[in-house]
Amino acid sequence: MQPQQLQLIFDEKRGMENNSTMPKKWGFRGNSEFKPEPQTTIRGAITLLESNLNQSDNRPVIPMAHSEPSAFPCFNTTEIAADAIADAVRSTKFNGHSPTIGILPARRAVAEYLSQDLPYKLSPDDVFLTMGCKQAAQGILQVLAGSKSNILLPKPGFPYFGYFAQLYNLEVRYFDLLPEKDWEVDLDSLVAVADENTVAMLIINPGNPCANVFTYQHLKQVAETAKKLGILVLSDEVYGHLTFGENPFVPMGVFGSITPVITLGSISKRWIVPGWRMGWLVTHDTNGILKEHGIIESIKGFLDASTEPPTFIQGALPDILSKTKEDFFSKIVNLIKEAANSCYEGIKDVPGLTCPTKPEGSMCLMAKLDLSVFDGIKDDLDFCLKLAKEESVVILPGICVGYESWLRITFAIDLSSLQDGIKRLKAFCERHSKKA
Ligand SMILES: Cc1ncc(COP(=O)(O)O)c(C=O)c1O
């Protein structure tokens, strides 16, 4: 074909004018699914709030929207983890690609680490390594998506589960957590929204955004309810062991013989290294049900098609998991506990805000906004936008976690910044309170 003829075909396909160098219509456009409303992802919401900061306020910005304490030196990770990474890099043994499910020593290390809290031993074959807990969540939602499938998510919850589900055409149905009952799952509301197309339910334990820790008894009831419904339990345990109240952390895998359980976790929170992107997806399938139903094969298929965590971080994982000393863990838990208590007590003095339960785990809590106390504040998003502008304090509006007229407040920052943040929050609420 002559070049002129080819040009004519191009021109016709793109509706180009003769002699014009531009087509009338480009053949591509961004996928609108990837342009969520700001409140659909926490990062989107934070970007929106930060764009409202007053650049001429010289005070430090207090970041109470993002559970990311690594910026504060008191939350530095343990030297043992840093040494493990350096050793793995220097060894030159981890410069190549890893298998897509992760290298065996790292999977074995995760199996051993998690088995310490289980009544049975996990095998490395139950463990799949991922780029943080986030990729584990993304993967399992993709695996579970089917033509008519639906998944049950908690309300309030963690927004990206809903976001990913929507992306993969997995219908989302919400069940309630009960603030007056330590944010337990409302099992009646769960059963009410389930049907024959329900594939799974999610719990987040310790809880984000509610700072609750489920009891053994309640988790057992969750497992029994899931079994009756014929669904699996997804348990996001990224905050595993970050507990400081009465209830100890009980992994959902303990109930894997009642109903199939898949746990999602990472070193992001307990080791305060979210940037290392090292997580896992673990199947607790003592009765072989997940295998029988093709879930294990699909997980492998998902991982074959995605990116594995950097091999040197996998190489460091056995040392990180087995050599970290108890005093590092207790130092971190004590810092978070002190901050949580200070936040909870501080909120008691803030007009228009109440916190229904004392935080017991994770890094953030939910506080209820009584909008009738304020003048000129429309809703929780309006509250947070004005707070950012006037006080340089960034707090997440409840709408981002599916709970209007509430706030999600991250307390895991250094204590003096937190206390400054609560002081500014109080000043803001007093200033905007209706005058008697
Ligand atoms: C409940 C919950 N799950 C998962 C994640 C993501 O964890 P990772 O950084 O390991 O991907 C977070 C991060 O804040 C979280 O709060």
Largest sheet report = 8 strands, mixed
* Helicity, as a percent range: 25-40%
Q: How many H/I helices?
A: 14
Oligomer, anyone? single chain
How does the overall form come out from the CA principal axes? globular
Query: How many E-type strands?
Result: 13
CATH class of the largest domain: Alpha Beta
Output the CATH homologous superfamily of the largest domain: Type I PLP-dependent aspartate aminotransferase-like (Major domain)
Strand order of the largest sheet: 2-9-8-7-6-3-4-5
Can you tell me the CATH architecture of the largest domain? 3-Layer(aba) Sandwich
Question: How would you spell out the order of helices and strands?
Answer: HHEHHEHEHEEHEHEEEHHHHEEHEEH
Q: What ligand molecules are bound, each kind once?
A: pyridoxal-5'-phosphate
Category from helices, strands and their pairing: alpha/beta
Describe this structure in words.
The protein is an alpha/beta fold and 436 residues long. The chain folds into 2 domains: 36-75 and 327-432, Aspartate Aminotransferase, domain 1 (Alpha-Beta Complex), CATH 3.90.1150; 92-323, Aspartate Aminotransferase, domain 2. Helix content is 38%, strand content 15%. It has helices spanning 3-14, 42-50, 79-90, 104-115, 132-144, 159-167, 187-193, 216-229, 289-292, 295-304, 311-323, 326-347, 380-391, 415-432, and strands at residues 62-64, 127-130, 150-155, 171-178, 184-185, 198-204, 232-236, 261-266, 279-284, 353-354, 364-369, 393-397, 406-410. An 8-stranded mixed β-sheet has the order 2-9-8-7-6-3-4-5, with helices on both faces. Helix 3 runs antiparallel to helix 11. It is globular. 46% of the residues are buried. Pyridoxal-5'-phosphate binds at residues 67, 132-134, 158, 204, 208, 236, 238, 266, 268, 274, 279.
